[in-house]
Design brief:
It is a single chain. Helix content is 74%, strand content 0%. It has helices at 3-34, 39-59, 66-91, 98-107, 111-130, 132-137, 145-174, 194-209, 214-218, 221-233, 236-246, 250-256. The chain is globular and about 60 Å long. With 267 residues, the protein is mainly α. The model has no long low-confidence stretch (mean pLDDT 91). Helix 1 (3-34) packs antiparallel against helix 5 (111-130) and helix 2 (39-59) packs parallel to helix 5.
Length: 267
């Protein structure tokens, strides 16, 4: 990466931060109006698409490979738009997610303060941090296409796990006969969180696509942070806390099923 590419990357990072701040500000206003924190889930995927689109436009003024910047935009759009549409359909007519309701109740502050300090601000920071490979990689001038191909393969695997896992869970929940039961079929037989595993693969794949330069390699914080969020912070940890309370037999499911990486179920 040349000094000009590095300067262009800094510009992309700054512009991306502006997009995230503006978008999360709009989301905060919508959440305040609806008194519903779940709004942020729908915004999550769309926010990344906006950052990728802004980056493609900003990077077009530099020497970065034009094909790579549009590949990154396409990858982000495929992942982000599907995820946001899925979460919108799931949450639009549903009450507040119990995880957010419990968070707001435990915090005790007014709704606007909880929404800003506990939801939109941390998720905005996380969005910008996770999106760094997109903002930096779009300015890569020298691209190793074999590395790009490897990244696309990992990304595709992640999309399959996330999309199929979400579809299987939605179909399971739509059947009244499954009310109160534990989803342990399809991909859910091999991992308790196929959608989260897929999400981690998606961002690992995006990072690999940008890894032709040292600056792209340095954004490894993105897949690492996403994986930590999904397994330890906002994803599996909170999800399983609620499942253990509401689903009899969940402990047995935990004992026989891998928590993250798909593996054959234990006897």
């Amino acid at each position: 990466m040349t000094p000009n590419d590095l300067a262009q990357s800094v510009t992309s990072l700054a512009a991306g931060l502006g997009v995230v701040v503006a978008f999360m500000g709009i989301g905060l206003a919508i959440a305040q109006n609806k008194k519903k924190l779940t709004v942020v889930d729908t915004m999550w995927g769309i926010g990344f698409v906006l950052v990728a689109a802004e980056t493609a436009l900003v990077a077009s003024g530099g020497d970065g490979d034009p094909y790579l910047r549009w590949i990154l935009l396409a990858m982000t759009a495929v992942w982000g738009l599907r995820l946001s549409w899925h979460l919108h359909r799931r949450n639009a007519k549903a009450p507040e997610d119990p995880r957010y309701a419990e968070l707001a109740e435990a915090d005790g502050r007014p709704f606007a303060q909880v929404a800003l300090m506990r939801v939109f601000l941390p998720q905005g920071i996380a969005m910008w941090l996770v999106a760094t490979p997109i903002m930096v990689g779009a300015n890569n001038e020298d691209v190793v296409w074999l590395v790009v191909g490897l990244g696309l393969a990992v990304f595709t695997l992640g999309n399959i796990f996330e999309g199929v896992g979400d579809a299987q869970l939605a179909a399971f929940k739509s059947d009244p006969a499954n009310k109160g039961k534990i989803m342990d079929q399809g991909l859910w037989r091999y991992t308790r969180h196929p959608n989260y595993f897929g999400d981690a693969c998606v961002w690992t794949g995006i990072w690999i696509v940008t890894a032709s330069s040292w600056a792209g390699l340095a954004t490894v914080i993105s897949p690492l942070a996403m994986t930590i969020f999904l397994t330890k912070v906002t994803g599996a940890a909170l999800n399983e806390k609620g499942m253990k309370k509401s689903k009899p037999g969940y402990d047995e499911y935990v004992r026989r099923t891998s928590g993250f990486i798909p593996l054959p179920p234990k006897k």
